Amino acid sequence: MALFNKKKPEPAASAAPVAKPVNPDDIWNTPSPRRRQTVAVKESKYDEAVPETLEVESVDPEMIKTKMAQLEAELEEKKNQPVKTHADYGTSTVGREEIIDAQTEYEKLYVVEHEKYIRSHQEEITEAKEQGVAEKMEAMYAEHEAKVAEVENTKFEFSEVGQAEVDKKLVDLPYAKRPEDYAEYKDIAAVASEPDEAEIEKLGVIDHSEDPDNIGFVDEEFLAKKVEEFEAKYGDRK
Length: 238
Hints:
This protein is mainly alpha-helical. The chain is 46% helix and 7% strand.
């Protein structure tokens, strides 16, 4: 039983690892590693991908350190500069001589640029040779004479059509009408005869005897009677 009651010896305590401080300069001074990376390259979407190994070089830490120092110096310089307002800037106007000088320089530049533009847009027109012009004219004359001869040699056959056939065709047309078919030709005989004097006298005279609003003829006696009745009834109203 004593065998099982024997205590095991405690292991010796190991020393705890001590954290090593990191020096920032060690990071900046670490040489930049060169990394190799394999990528698939295709000339176009229809080609097959071809593996290609690229060597990627990281940015030099020393260059980053220099750029950061320059940036911090610029920020510090701007921070120490006083704030400028509109009063800190000059308010002097531009002199007349300065304006004239600028205008003169602009006009000189315009003349130079304008001449350059004209020279660049001039078209070279070559002079036509006399022999070539004569050949073109002869070809045009020959073509014209050939067309005139073709028209002169063409025989056009015309057949004469009688008046009876023309009248028959006109009557058969859907839009052709005979004179008696028009309303204005129905009384052509009455209009053609000489008018009667009595009919001429009626022109411009309108008979209102049959009108519904006809009041008829009023004689003098009836009118005088109505006037007396009106004065007897309404005469004292003034």
